[in-house]
Amino acid sequence: MNPNPDPIVIIGAGPAGMATALALHKVGQRPILLERYREARPAGNILNLWPPPIKALQEMGVDTVDLGAPCHTTFRGIKGNIRADVKIPRDVVDAYGGGFIGLLRPELYRRMLAAMPEGVLRTHVEVVGLDDHGDGVTVTLGDDSVIDAGVVVGADGIDSMVRGHLWGPSEKREHKLHIIGGYTFAAIPGVERNEVVLTHDRSVQGTYSSIRDNGRDGIQWWVLEAWDPAAEPPTDLRQHALSLARRFPGPLRALVQSTEPGHFQRWPIRDRKPLRQWSKGRITLAGDAAHATSPYAAYGAGMSIGDGYTLGQELAGIDLSDTAAVIAALTRYDERRIAHTTSQVQQAFVLGKVFHHAPAFLRPVRDFILDSTPMLQKQVGEKSPGEIVAQLDEMGAGLVTR
Ligand SMILES: Cc1cc2nc3c(=O)[nH]c(=O)nc-3n(C[C@H](O)[C@H](O)[C@H](O)COP(=O)(O)OP(=O)(O)OC[C@H]3O[C@@H](n4cnc5c(N)ncnc54)[C@H](O)[C@@H]3O)c2cc1C
């Protein structure tokens, strides 16, 4: 029985907001999830998920059976040589349906929405103002109506209004990179199944990965290069992606060629410098609002889902009329999430610099080191996946009502 009269309001129905709503409902709190658009819909297509978000989704009651293609990941040099083999323990692979699963975003949304209890999600509702008055938060909506909330979670993405409200304006950090990606269900010879094949030449990354989508096997791919954010985007994504894919061995070029026109997308890559604190009073942040991340981590959505799970654990059994208890719960949430997400955001930022912004004269030296020493193996093959897998223990026994 929930003793709190006011709901927990979550702003934004992306992976962070949906996960927070599901987790809070599971532990007996009363979430309301507000989305400004007419429906909760993904802003992109390609996606991979690590084991911790899969564990979190399962705990929230989301069906993860056959959600994606189980993949093993290698970083390779341009001659196909393995520079790093991403190590995920066998028992983890077995327990979570694969080390790194490849899927399409709409399927993740569909499954999370299918688990959403009736009445939690309210669409076409934009939040325009917040006032934390100590005993609660007044949430003002675009039509000037208000909702009284016990706690507010800003899961409103990289351009978060809530982050600005709590911590003031911050510049977006331009990585001066862009990524063009797509997917195909065509049968292409030479594709290594259930692998993420991530290859770098001197200045471009070209990658493909198996996916499952609605019971179908397919392949997603992307190319990533330096790009001035002030420059016009390429006019023809297929031709531009092909010009980059040609530089790589294997089936990348054929994958781009067989991609349907509507299945191409381009994103400039940017994040924001990580914050040292997310929560203030009764308001907190989750997902990209807290830790926008370069896709070099392939973990932004995964971390967003982890935030929601942790909020569920920390707010389980909390009486929202007890301000001190609310603040203590949100402080614990910050303590559990900030170090891990900051490390991943910064690593992704640095990888982008090393692979795409090294001065031309240093690139042969860099590549010699990456080809002939265990440096990359230690960082992206062991340290980073080790940190991510360690989250499985950090997450504890699950979402339980206190
Ligand atoms: C090319 C690319 C590849 C990526 N690949 C991966 C990957 O492989 N694995 C991975 O884990 N992550 C990946 N990511 C990162 C991932 O996409 C993001 O981290 C994730 O979508 C963030 O989710 P979110 O819920 O925080 O924000 P969003 O998905 O941005 O959702 C925010 C929501 O808030 C709503 N909203 C905003 N303001 C308001 C308001 N005032 N009122 C009401 N609603 C509001 C928006 O409409 C939106 O629906 C990738 C990102 C990119 C660009």
UniProtKB/TrEMBL annotation:
Pfam families: FAD_binding_3 (PF01494). Its EC number is 1.14.13.24. Keywords: FAD, Flavoprotein, Monooxygenase, Oxidoreductase. GO terms for molecular function: 3-hydroxybenzoate 6-monooxygenase activity; FAD binding. Residues 8-347 form the FAD-binding domain. InterPro entries: FAD-bd, FAD-dep_Monooxygenase_BioMet, FAD/NAD-bd_sf. Its cofactor is FAD. This is 3-hydroxybenzoate 6-hydroxylase 1. The gene is xlnD.
